[in-house]
Design a protein that fits this description.
353 residues; mainly alpha; 15 helices
């Protein structure tokens, strides 16, 4: 794979990091962009080729994307992993963190099994440019339909989350600690978990920074309380929607969000659950390809791999910071329009060129 240039690795890495989290399909873009550019890009960067080194490269970039997600959600993952081990230790699934840990595990199993068995078949059949363009249009239709036909439960959840956020931001005590939004006395475990983290916030931070951090922790804890009000079966069905992302052009986060909203989650909570579910899947997919990149396929391109990884990680971190705030008040519709226009335009261009 010595033909991979630094320009190609930079473009692919940045596109991977950004489009993995935006609901527009990273694989679809990484299939279409080389084909649209043409020339050596179309020849060298082909995921449908058997034992494609390009696929190993872009999936290897998933490691950097997953690390960016872990960095952004590190406090959440500390709680979730702690909940998993406490569940094993005490043989119970009672607290918010314990429930969420097992919900993520169960929701990841379907896509993990299907990916291991059918990933190669799906890539060879659908990882070609004109099909990726078609599925990108399908992705846009899914996103638009998810917004257009949202359930009443999901719309009510939006209203409730907005009200809880306003209450949380206006309810502080002298030390700046914030009541976890949506947390009531009926949720003592969640309140305790959130309080412990809030009290553990670094005292070295300036008061304003500490207050912002405490607000973020409170929002995360209360969001997890809402998420764990779902049943395990419901969360597993939401996670199973990720299987569609094996088709180049279908966004993992997009279809997971739509499935979450269809199940009654608010848009904000659906986005959070999608990002949490994506982390182990992306990390596992990337880790499986790391041996390919450290073996013969990676000879002569270690510098390109490093550059792509750095840009992928930075792009993913900036994207998730933006999207977490974006989905508090805004919709999937702009992404739906983009997918339809870019997918249709790409299909037309590839058909006539």
């Amino acid at each position: 794979m010595s033909h991979l240039t630094y320009l190609e690795s930079a473009v692919v890495g940045l596109v991977q990091g950004v489009t993995e989290l935006f609901p527009v399909s990273s694989l679809g873009h990484n299939v279409l962009i080389p084909a649209l550019i043409g020339g050596s890009w179309a020849k060298d960067l082909n995921v449908a080729r058997p034992e494609s080194p390009y696929l190993a490269f872009i999936v290897g970039m998933h490691v950097a994307t997953a690390i960016a997600l872990l960095v952004y959600f590190w406090r959440d993952w500390v709680r979730i992993i702690g909940g998993f081990f406490s569940s094993i230790r005490y043989g119970q699934i009672e607290t918010t963190n314990q429930k969420l840990a097992w919900m993520i595990i169960m929701a990841t199993i379907p896509v993990g099994l299907v990916g291991v068995v059918f990933e190669h078949t799906f890539r060879v059949l659908f990882g070609v440019p004109y099909r990726a363009a078609i599925f990108l249009v399908v992705n846009g239709v899914i996103l638009y339909t998810g917004e257009k036909f949202r359930t009443r439960a999901s719309l009510r959840a939006d209203t409730s989350v907005t009200a809880d956020r306003a209450l949380a931001e206006g309810t502080t005590h002298d030390e700046g600690a914030t009541l976890a939004e949506g947390t009531t006395l009926a949720d003592p475990a969640a309140l305790t978990e959130g309080a412990a983290l809030t009290e553990g916030a670094s005292t070295r931070d300036a008061p304003a920074h500490r207050t912002v951090r405490q607000l973020e922790i409170s929002r995360a804890v209360s969001a997890d309380v809402r998420l764990t009000s779902m049943g395990f079966g419901q969360s597993t069905l939401i996670g199973a929607a990720q299987i569609l992302a094996l088709l180049a052009g279908i966004s993992r986060d997009g279809v997971t969000m739509v499935a979450g909203m269809f199940s009654g989650l608010s848009r904000e909570d659906a986005a959070r659950f999608a990002f949490l579910l994506a982390t182990p899947v992306i990390l596992a997919a990337g880790a499986l390809k790391v041996p390919d990149l450290t073996g013969p396929l990676g000879n002569g391109i270690h510098g390109q791999i490093l550059l792509g990884s750095v840009l992928s990680g930075v792009g993913a971190y900036v994207s998730v910071r933006y999207l977490v705030r974006y989905f508090q008040t805004r919709t999937l519709t702009p992404f739906a329009i983009y997918c339809v226009l870019f997918g249709a335009g790409s299909w037309i261009y590839l058909s006539v060129k």
